[in-house]
Amino acid sequence: MFEVFLKGIVLGLFLSILVGPTFFMLIDTSITKGIKKAVVMDLGVVVSDILLILFLFFSAASQLSKIVENPRMRLIGGIIFVLFGLSSFVGRFTSLKLGTGPKTQFTKGFFVNLLNPSVIVFWLTTVSVVASEFRNHQIYTLFFFTGTIVTMFSIDLIKITAAGKIRRFLSGRQMNRVKLITGSVMIGFGLFLIYKFLELR
Question: Which of 63, 84, 105, 155 is the most buried (most CB within 10 A)?
Answer without folding.
Answer: 105
